[in-house]
Amino acid sequence: MYSHTEPKDRSVSRSKLLTCTCLVLAAAGCAGGPTVSTTQAVTAGDAPYDHILVIALFESFDARRWLEQEVVNELTEAGVQATPMTSMSDTRTIINRDTVLDRVTRTGADAVLVTQLVTFESTGKSRDARPEATYNVWPTYWYNVFEVQLTEYVEPPLMEWTNELKLSSMVYSAASQDRVWSINSDWKIKERLETGSTRDYSVIVEEAESIVRAAKRAGVIE
């Protein structure tokens, strides 16, 4: 129960996902939201659940805290009591079976929702920025002849990235300690990195919304 296997490929930090890009999304970028697919239909007789302990498993503690809180917000809005794991832990807390069981007992949760990053691939290409120019024109002593001064301002090349990632969200019954439901969320995000760009928190909100929406549709929550 509550086992977590780390991806073998660590060439790209998983915290890139949700530290925005943690996650992963630039202000000039765009994402159409995740494609959600069910990988395990509800198999529990004790669903729907009333109190869920929410756990995000990422290297970045801030990434975990942000996603957990957004999921909790969505569950609360749906009428389900929820507790984020990061509210009862810190960067030194090891998330394992014993830790989860302890938090389940302390909160009285009847289910645990775990979200983790499965894969992350990023490809990028350099694109020249469009130059801007100013012109200064002066007449000369010659008829119809002018002196022209051209000044071009060329910015550094821009980097355009396409990020493809997959998240897995699983629900465990606190009573049976078995996994009773799971989904995958597939993201394809395009972003442009340029001077002064900022990250967009909306990818975290959209992921939380998609998880809770799928859980409600499947009968995990009412």
Task: Summarize, please.
The protein has 222 residues and is of the alpha+beta class. It is built from four helices and nine strands. Strand 8 and strand 9 (179-193) form a beta hairpin.
What best-fitting shape do the alpha-carbon axes yield?
elongated
Q: What percent of residues are in strands? A: 35-45%
H-E string: HEEEHEHEEEEEH
Rounded to the nearest angstrom, the distance between the terminal CA atoms is 24 Å
Q: Give the integer mean of the pLDDT values.
A: 81
Report the C-alpha radius of gyration, rounded. Answer: 24 Å
Structural class assignment: alpha+beta
Per DSSP, the total helix count is 4
Q: How helix-rich are the residues, as a percent range? A: 10-25%
Given as residue ranges, the uncertain stretches (5+ residues, pLDDT < 50) are: 3-29
Please give a structural write-up.
This protein has helices at 17-21, 61-77, 97-107, 202-218, and strands at 30-31, 35-40, 51-57, 81-84, 111-127, 132-139, 146-153, 158-173, 179-193. A hairpin with a 6-residue loop joins strand 6 (132-139) and strand 7 (146-153). It has four helices and nine strands. It is elongated and about 95 Å long. The model is unreliable at 3-29 (pLDDT under 50). By secondary structure, it is of the alpha+beta class. The strands form two sheets. Strands 1, 2, 3, 4, 5, 8 and 9 form a seven-stranded mixed beta sheet that branches. Strands 6-7 form a two-stranded antiparallel sheet. The longest helix is centred in the first third of the chain and has 17 residues, at 61-77. Helix content is 23%, strand content 37%.
